[in-house]
Specification:
The protein has helices at about 25-40, 50-55, 100-115, 125-130, 145-150; strands at about 1-5, 10, 20, 60, 70-80, 80-90, 120-125, 135, 160-165. By secondary structure, it is of the alpha+beta class.
Length: about 180
């Protein structure tokens, strides 16, 4: 049986759920999703230019081609042995279904493939990342992040985000 998705494409009832690397045609939808949370102060905004510039960092979650993007997450390399999980956003009506966790797991898998030893994130929701094995750390152990990105933020130095770290050589122990 065929039905139409939000873009008018016909798709079969048996939908494929997929996480994939972002493509050029995803940029505006990624931007809109991130901005929805940034406007409420729940995450940092990303300009269209930044998303285009770092498009290869992003994973997206959608049910099938032609369906809306339900979630997004980026893996950003910061140093030879360290990367950041950033811009994790899941549509509100899709939250609580494991989409965010699956996106972060995709980033972890990719980081491992590059030999990254440590992943970190800055978040207002540390409990989410704690469930994935991340532990709270002091921001001062992230000087590349602080002096590269944070210093440009209007909230600096009084940011309320919490820093968390995941040692990838320990990821097998977290399940």
């Amino acid at each position: 049986m065929q039905k139409k998705c939000s873009t008018g494409h016909e798709v079969s009832e048996a939908k494929r759920v997929m996480i994939r690397k972002a493509r050029m045609e995803d940029v505006k939808e990624i931007h809109k999703l991130i901005e929805n949370f940034a406007k409420r102060g729940e995450m940092l905004p990303r300009s269209l230019v930044e998303i285009y510039e770092y498009l290869r960092d992003y994973f997206v979650f959608q049910e099938d081609d032609g369906f809306p993007i339900y979630g997004v997450c980026a893996l950003h390399f910061c140093w030879e042995n360290m990367a950041e999980i950033r811009s994790l956003a899941v549509r509100e009506e899709q939250q609580g279904k494991g989409i965010g966790s699956r996106l972060v797991e995709s980033c972890i898998t990719e980081a491992k493939s590059y030999g990254i030893a440590k992943l970190f994130c800055l978040t207002y929701k540390p409990e989410f990342f704690s469930h994935l094995g991340f532990t709270i750390v002091e921001k001062t152990i992230l000087p590349q992040k602080i002096w590269g990105d944070c210093i440009k933020c209007p909230e600096f130095p009084d940011c309320g985000e919490i820093a968390l770290m995941l040692e990838l050589n320990e990821t097998d122990k977290r399940q």
